[in-house]
Design brief:
single chain, alpha/beta, Rossmann fold, about 40% helix, binds magnesium ion
Length: about 190
């Protein structure tokens, strides 16, 4: 299969790293429990422009200091033996180098990486069989197109349900869904 994989809050804990730097920038003391929105900056009352300034300043540190989720790197290494793995992140190209350095540092294995916000289009163009992501809007787009998506469970995506949305609470469950899909495609 050709599997596309998101980074933030799918293979790594982006929420904790964002909160650390956003708290420093704002003087607030939010915790992960306060984040109920996919767009973390909204919990700080910032508009997009305010967020862009903070992100440009701290984005490198946020991305470098994000912790991988348990079993994520091992899972990609195992999956790479049988599948084509394309990392697709909506991060801007500004953070390309730190992203690739981080993936190498944590021993992630993958075939390709691209920086693209329009994941549905990118997945169709690259003939991707399944996307693994946490974003509720991608899950809704994929479900509408009747394309399977493995949705990495997060507090802000629980309202999304569809027969095409396969929810996974951890990487053991992600692997279980992939095995199931791969068997169905044979
Ligand atoms: Mg994400």
């Amino acid at each position: 299969m050709h599997i596309a994989i998101d980074l933030d809050n799918t293979v790594l804990d982006a929420t904790t790293a964002h909160i650390t730097y956003y708290n420093r920038a704002s003087g607030k003391a939010l915790t992960a429990a306060d984040i109920q929105d996919f767009y973390i900056y909204r919990s700080y009352g910032w508009n997009q422009e305010e967020r862009d300034i903070i992100y440009a300043k701290h984005g490198h540190d946020i991305h470098w200091h994000s912790a991988p989720y348990p079993n994520a790197a091992d899972s990609l290494r195992q999956l790479s033996l049988q599948h084509e793995l394309s990392i697709i992140t909506a991060r801007p190209m500004l953070f390309r180098d730190v992203t690739i350095d981080w993936l190498n540092h944590h021993k992630f294995t993958y075939t390709n990486i691209s920086f693209d916000e329009n994941k549905l289009e990118a997945c169709i163009a690259a003939k991707v069989d399944v996307l693994i992501d946490d974003a509720p809007h991608y899950a809704e787009e994929f479900a509408r197109m009747r394309k399977p998506i493995i949705l990495y469970d997060q507090p802000y995506n629980r309202a999304v349900t569809s027969e095409f949305v396969l929810r996974a609470a951890n990487w053991v469950e992600v692997n279980r869904h992939i095995q199931h899909l791969a068997t169905g495609l044979k």
